[in-house]
Write a structure and sequence with these properties.
By secondary structure, the chain is mostly helical. It is built from nine helices and two strands. The protein has one domain. Keywords: Lipoprotein, Signal.
Length: 283
Amino acid sequence: MSVTLLALALAAAEPTADPPVVAPPAAESATVSPPPTIQPDAPGVTGDDIVVTAREEAPGDPLERINAKSYEAIQAVDEAVVGPISLGYKTGMPKPLRLGLRNFLRNLEEPVIAFNYLLQLKPGRAVKSVGRFAINSTAGVAGLIDVAKRKPFNLPYTPNGFANTFACYGIGPGPYFFLPLVGPTTLRDLIGVGLDRAALPAVVGKPLDRPYYAIPANVIDSLNDRIDIDGQLKQVRAESADPYTDTRELYLRQRKSEIAAICPKRGESVEQGLPSRPGKGRD
């Protein structure tokens, strides 16, 4: 206010002076200058300044561009080949036989599951896993029938593996990958699954370490995993604006949930997500 009064007084004292030329408002100007580019590290930039930058790679996904391309290619193959084969296996194979093969393969996982529970300092869960293995290997006809999950035993299948053990000991997931024949995974989970698959054949030997057993077993196991997530894959493809990102986030959230069920301090409770390879899924 004082500055305005002073300007008026000076104007009245010099009547012969030309009146000041006032520039039109910026909105009425014929030309508009582009806004200055603000660099993130420029001096004077505060928390209130808006800085627009290019999209950066997601934390934990340093190979996002490569992974996204891999995802697109694998999804195309899945829709054209893997999906139809898995659904053909589901409809063509009699359900009792298909579930029997699944139960047989799950039963062979129980020693590795129990061993990892011991490494995680969960002896009670290890005993339950050993109990499942003993019951299903005998009363369940070599594991073809999951008797242990029924009354009076009430011992449901609870997946576990070296990836979870690594997480319980504070080893982070490492970089995220989307790989052929594996799908979504992390470096920690990829190493863990490799150890899971190698542990029992290395200890037992024949016939578990022979190609004529290992190849069909892995194929059947993979088909069952694909059948389990068929509904979720269709939902992501139909409803998601960014299927790759949503698949990654669902996988990582599900893994945190599975780890939280064993080591609460190392994970987060999550109610939904894509079943992961280390956890596979439940009955």
